[in-house]
């Protein structure tokens, strides 16, 4: 199944691409459904109106000073100023392998089973370009990060969305629906946990069922785990399964040899502009992904790779601290959104909170119109958010939901909460 002409992540406002003299569209047909991203539109709207931008997910403060200084030191020492090694600098590959072993008990050879990428976005694109061929089906959990759809399209695959639906304060995966979505043409499952934008963290039981399905049907799995350190243990699942915890799918029986795990430094260390991500998997899968990756950026972020290697070795207190800081910000914004009249789905992870606008009386267009609401919100309340419908193929399923980012300074969030009282 493919999306509507405006496509996930598209605003739906961009005109048709220009045509050459021969009448053929200039833009590759595989990308024709994708217009300008909603993030560009809403960020421009924030600038034009002076609104607080809680749309795009980037922090408004830098990460640890010692990590920033590590990058400066690398620059001054001439480390990474020229092309780094194709797989990534050895120090970072070793740090990634040690991180996976220390936290999850997963053993990876840093020389053969770790690949450094230009952020998680390149890792996703390279993985799909390497592993998917025209005609292959790729199952993705919707709502999903908008680059998933574009990467699947570039690879010539067909995306098959399985929708997470709200239940008891959480967006939930229907495992029967996931199983029914698998066909003989299914090549790959594309998962994201902790999940952007809903904040859901898949449980051990859900992951075990996914692993069993992948083994049974001989499927590859790409898992986007960039929010692995942003899981809030005070948000127990409504089904009584206890506090959420990030569990890599690769740790389940039969999964290490079929899973490509993607991580990133940007979300954990608040240096999103550095664009340092990584892939861990078997030598065969890493080689396949690298074969595609080398024709995208080839290499990137040389000095920053050395700094991220040091960041991954920070003490546990750092990771605890960033979680606690974001938990307090989550609670501040969630309380403000609730007071303003939204129905709030308090996230178990990530730094986004999803809300339902229907309690505000925004019930137009078959159950809510998140696009119209978000385009009007800067004028009504001086705040920018993102309509979740851009992350859906089934637009009607996402129509009433709106996402706010809380990775901002507390005083900025407090100002946003005060402004939202206008609703």
**Terminal-residue CA separation:** 37 Å
Counted by DSSP, the helix tally is 15
Count of extended strands: 15
User: In percent, how much strand structure appears in the residues?
Assistant: 5-15%
- Order of strands across the widest beta sheet? 2-10-9-8-7-3-4
Structural class estimated from helices and strands: alpha/beta
Q: Report helical residue fraction.
A: 25-40%
- Silhouette: globular
Q: Determine the mean pLDDT.
A: 92
- Unreliable spans are 1-6, 12-16
Give the SSE string: HEHHEHEHEEEHEHEEHEHHHEEHHEEHEH
Spatial extent as radius of gyration: 21 Å
Describe the structure.
The protein is of the alpha/beta class and about 425 residues long. Helix content is about 40%, strand content about 15%. It has 15 helices and 15 strands. The chain has helices at about 40-50, 65-75, 90-105, 120-130, 145-155, 175-180, 205-215, 265-270, 285-295, 300-310, 315-340, 365, 370-380, 395-400, 410-420, and strands at about 50-55, 115, 135-140, 160-165, 165, 170, 185-190, 220-225, 260-265, 275-280, 345, 350-355, 385, 385, 400-405. A hairpin with a 2-residue loop joins β5 and β6 (about 170). α1 packs parallel to α13. It is globular, with a radius of gyration of 21 Å. The model is unreliable at about 1-5 and about 10-15 (pLDDT under 50).
Which SSEs are present, and which pair or pack?
Blueprint: H1 38-49, E1 52-53, H2 65-77, H3 90-104, E2 114-117, H4 119-131, E3 137-142, H5 146-154, E4 158-163, E5 165-167, E6 170-172, H6 175-181, E7 186-192, H7 204-217, E8 220-224, E9 259-264, H8 266-269, E10 277-280, H9 283-293, H10 302-312, H11 316-340, E11 343-345, E12 352-356, H12 364-367, H13 370-381, E13 383-384, E14 386-387, H14 395-398, E15 401-405, H15 410-420
Parallel strand pairs: 1-13, 3-4, 3-7, 7-8, 8-9
Antiparallel strand pairs: 2-10, 5-6, 9-10, 11-12, 12-15, 14-15
């Amino acid at each position: 199944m493919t999306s509507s002409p405006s496509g996930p992540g598209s605003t739906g406002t961009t005109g048709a691409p220009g045509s050459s003299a021969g009448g053929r569209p200039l833009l590759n047909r595989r990308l024709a459904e994708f217009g300008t991203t909603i993030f560009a539109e809403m960020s421009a709207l924030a600038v034009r109106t002076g609104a607080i931008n809680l749309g795009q997910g980037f922090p408004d403060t830098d990460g640890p000073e010692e990590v920033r200084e590590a990058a400066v030191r690398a620059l001054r020492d001439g480390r990474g100023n020229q092309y780094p090694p194709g797989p990534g600098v050895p120090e970072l590959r070793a740090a990634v392998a040690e991180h996976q072993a220390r936290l999850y008990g997963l053993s990876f050879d840093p020389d053969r089973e770790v690949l450094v990428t230009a952020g998680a976005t390149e890792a996703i694109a390279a993985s799909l370009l390497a592993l998917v061929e025209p005609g292959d089906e790729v199952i993705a959990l919707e709502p999903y990060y908008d680059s998933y759809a574009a990467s699947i399209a570039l690879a010539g695959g067909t995306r098959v969305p399985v929708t997470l639906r709200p239940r008891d304060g959480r967006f939930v995966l229907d495992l029967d629906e996931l199983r029914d979505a698998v066909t003989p043409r299914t090549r790959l499952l594309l998962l994201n946990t902790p999940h952007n934008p809903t904040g859901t963290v898949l449980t051990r039981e859900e992951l075990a069922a996914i692993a069993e399905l992948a083994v049974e049907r001989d499927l590859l799995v790409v898992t986007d785990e960039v929010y692995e350190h942003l899981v809030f243990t005070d948000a127990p699942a409504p089904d009584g399964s206890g506090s959420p915890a990030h569990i890599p799918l690769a740790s389940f029986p039969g999964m290490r040899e079929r899973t490509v795990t993607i991580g990133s430094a940007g979300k954990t260390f608040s240096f999103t502009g550095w664009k340092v991500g990584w892939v861990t998997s078997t030598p065969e899968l890493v080689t396949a992904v690298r074969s595609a990756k080398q024709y995208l950026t080839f290499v990137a972020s040389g000095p920053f790779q050395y700094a991220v290697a040091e960041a991954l070795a920070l003490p546990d207190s750092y990771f605890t601290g960033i979680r606690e800081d974001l938990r307090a910000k989550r609670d501040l914004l969630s309380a403000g959104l609730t007071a303003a009249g939204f129905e709030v789905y308090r996230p178990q992870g990530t730094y986004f909170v999803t809300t339902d606008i229907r309690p505000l009386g925004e019930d137009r267009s078959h159950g809510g119109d998140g696009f119209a609401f978000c385009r009007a919100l800067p004028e009504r309340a001086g705040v920018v958010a993102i309509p979740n419908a851009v992350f859906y193929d089934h637009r009607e399923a996402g129509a009433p939901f709106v996402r706010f980012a809380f990775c901002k300074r507390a005083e900025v969030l407090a100002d946003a909460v005060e402004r939202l009282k206008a609703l």
